[in-house]
Structures
1.
Amino acid sequence: MLKKRIIPCLDVKDGRVVKGINFLDLVDAGDPVQQAKFYSENGADEICFLDISASLENRDTILRMVEKTAEEVFIPLTVGGGVRSIENIQNLLKAGADKVSINSAAINDPNIIKNSSKYFGSQCIVVAVDVKKESDSWKVHSHGGTKNTNIDALEWLKKVEDLGAGEILLTSMDKDGTKSGFDLEILSRANDVLSIPIIASGGVGLMDHFYEGVHIGKADALLAASVFHFNEFSIMDVKNYLKEKNIEIRI
Amino acid sequence: MKKNITIIDYGSGNILSAKQSFARVIKTENINANVCISSKPETIKNSTHIVLPGQGAFETCINGLKGIPGMIDELNNFVIAKKKPFFGICVGMQLLANNSLENGDHKGLGWVDGTIEKLPAEKLKMPHMGWNSIRVLKKNLKINPRETDYYFVHSFYFNCKNKENVLAITNYGIDFPSIVNKENIYGLQFHPEKSSDQGLDIIKSFIKI
């Protein structure tokens, strides 16, 4: 059976982890390789790096970081944040990323999804979609959630799939940081319209939220950051909990 | 004797990961071997082991391989005439088949009889992406994979003509071959280079052939 995936997300800036593990005496807590390695050895099914560097000049720094990580970590690695062009994608894949996640660039020009998935294969193109609820529907937000595009989320998701995305990283901005659980409504609605895998993101605070995410939200993978970084529980705690509840999981 | 492992670069996918996983195994197991990436048919002559990775569409991959003058002849010589160890990963495994029905009908290398067909998608997400278990059907003295989870990403599968070529199967809607083998030829549908320690173990056993 295919297993549900648990993915820790690390925020990196200028090649250094700024939001990552906070409970271990890592020799260098800012080192992305050490952080990714720790998670990989402790049950993560994939690693996600989100580059929050402000400037474009730091693209080379992230490439070196991806290269070093791929030398040490032998599980899939997704890199997102600031991906703007086919060239960016190619460089990240060449450096050792397995998947690249695209967000604002896809909204600015949806053709980047079509062209990149055709060129590199759908399997490495993840489209990240940030959504916020407005009365009965959800709207897509771009630029790190700062801009409301007024695009209907479900329509956008379907379009993104048709253009060739291999996977969706769906973040609820209403839930992100609240620790009140995933937005199960948008997750299950997205699941109804999509036939590609969905990674749920935003809102995890309790172990049961992971269970709800797969059981009610029907997500294929679950992404979390702070609950793991602050060791509120470990990835293996979550996996054992899900296993007990008869969710297919890799132990 | 020092082993020379060559990973064929024909413009497909995340080839660096494959190299790094082999380099890691060589280092931790202290094996007298060298791994390199090459797109030159001449390199194959001096190799003891060949690895063919692959990502994306079958047609793009086979055309990439054909696009290197002399490459297919040299591979045929290495694999079929000399019967030296060969390792295909993902689409690199699918290329072993007679043909693929992905976006048309495209001829493969024809080293292991069978056709690449689409996984039946009824109510299942496509691509088949993530960790899935394998069941070993046939014991193989050289490659002895653990019956555990490995990382898969694909929408097409190898429909093998001869069941004796199927070393292991995986279920996703149907049972499909996750490891194929014919004499010196090994093909893995999953990514051993992305499958943690159990994946590196398979790489180790391949290098030791």
2.
Amino acid sequence: MNEPDSRKEASQGTSDESSNAIDESSKTRSYRREGFEPEELKNPLPLWYTIFCVALITWGVSYFFMQGTVPADAGDLRTALPLPGSLPVDGAAVYNANCVACHQSSGAGLAGAFPPLDGSEWVLTDARIPAQILLHGVQGEMVVMGNTYNGVMPVQSHLSDQELAAVLNYIRNSWSNVADEIDADWFAAEREAFADREGPFNGGAELISVLGEPDV
Amino acid sequence: MTPAIAFLLAMTFLISIGGIFLMVWGLANDQWGDGEEAAKVIFAEGELGREEDPALTGVRRKGIQKEHEEGDLNIDEEELAERRVFDRSGRTPVLWWLSSSIVWLLLGSLFGVVASIKLHVPDWLIQDAVLTFGRVRPAHLNVVAYGWASMAGVGVGIWLVPRLFKTPLLGGQYATLGAMLWNIGMFSGTVAVLGGMSEGLEWLEFPWFVDIFLVLGGALAAVPLLMTILRRRVHHLYVSAWYLIAALVWFPMLLITAKLPLFTGVEQAIMNWWFAHNVLGLWMSPLGLAAAYYFIPKITGTPIYSYSLSLIGFWALALFYSQVGVHHLIGGPVPTWLTTLSIVTSVMMVIPVLAVAINHHMTIYSRWRMVLSSPTLRFVVAGAMMYTFASVQGSIEALRSVNVITHFTHYTVAHAHMGVYGFFSFILFGSIYFILPRLVAWEWPHIWAIELHFWLVFLGFGIYFWPLSIGGWLQGTAMLDATRPFMDSVLLTMPYLKARSVGGSLMTLGHVVFAAHFILVMRRMGPASDAPPKLMQGFGKRKNVEVANGAKS
């Protein structure tokens, strides 16, 4: 075990009483100065203390009744938080979580692989076009700012209308981009308008045929 | 919660309180033919008003006695010899429990400081899984709670048994065996927690097969208590005895219940906090109060102020405490009525706490100066005052309006230390200063070491407690502010966490001083002294010191 002290002491136990090193007076010294074994007087409770106790108990009983109207099935006073929709959504946070890996934090994309968002005609045009790209994705050839890309823009429809509106506003108003803002209700309508569509747009060509030429 | 549940709860509450107070009134007013006269049994003729100050030898004491206008010393040689027999009967088990506790105190303090530093230097000591925060922190909690506090508490308790029952300790060897088993449990449990074999419930991290040793060790420690009670030579049980018996009955019940494999989900959370809070309230508090109720009148030479207050303090604790733990789950998926009951009983704890505080205050009132000179009294009174503070703070913290801020913050951590350290550990320190010289017939050799120990742990704890409480409160308000990012609430605590590490290190340093001094006494080393340590000798007693010096030469 790990208690050298106690082991030592246990072995010392028997030697204590017979040891010559410790004389009788040093053994009794601490006892001679010791007081009586404690006992109790019979003083009554202080009046203020009694009144205080009664007040406290009264509070306790009334507290039970004050809590009597709390619904029993909700756990302890849990209040439902307002739904995320009514809280402001940070577009930058959504961008950093979902877009930044390809389009980069500068919005410049990666030459030859991922198209830029900064200054892109597809971003700054009528908001309906980037909104549909977010909702359905694009697969195939697409010309952005004079360069041709052939990749996959994954669908982002799992994000809520609030989040999509926030990230689109962020993209359209970051870096050198300036465009008018849209809101979640607008996005909900946009989602509803193409609810029947399945699969991504087939490159820039289909986007143009369905939604028209990007026009900055 | 429906009005029906509220009505039933309120009525149960009122009837229980009514019953308890009726019983207390009956006991206090001798309705069962067993009050005042029985209470006098312990009191030996001619002893009232004599004070024990471990600092004083005959001449010096006479000086002080005169100062207090007390009568002549009146030592009953027979009683004196009897006390020596009592102390000797419990010597081996008491020393086993106490010296083991000192080892765990040092180890636990070290874990605590490491865990504290990790909160503001997160990359320190992360090379090995053993030293990561998630293992060091529970190791700290378990080692100080079950190694230091519980073992020292049992040691002091066993020492009190023969004195309280005026009967030599019977079956002391069972308690010695209990200490060995408890140490095995502590050692294996600490290794298990550090090795990653934690049960994952706070205060219950030790695996169940390790806890068997703690339950057996604790049960064996209770054997001499029961054997001695059955042969006791006093009829009336002094208030310390009530607390002692209750603690040793309650703790095994708590631990066994908590370890039963019956609880899952929300029930498990309820059981967890029922247990964790009761370790403080139904195990450490009664042990600490047993010691305080013994040493305060013993050293000041004043009887306890009021038997009625003692009764209320004890029985109200027994009635209210076991329900308070659920206030840790305020706002959680726990039935409202259960949390409400726990909030009300938490606030009701003010009743027994005030009773104890008034009782101690009125007892020490006329002798407050002795707090300056007597090491035992200084530690015990500081501890008793922090008991009142911690308890009232806890009652306020249980209110929903306060809890919503303090929950999940460092404020709770500071509060827990006020209870286990400020209250219980201080009382244990004081008790050991009284007990040890009697068991080994050797005075504490260095007064400065006691002073140093006291100020290191007292100031260190102040530096620990206040910044951490303030930081925790600010953390709580920051977390509630929806406009601030969560990281704000973390970063703003940094200066307070650093202060906590400084305070914790000072406390640890104090423990090292205390442990070294403890070893000196155990080995009868250091300058031999025929007088016990008296702190602050020059303070207001210059005349007496001169008299004493003259007498010595």
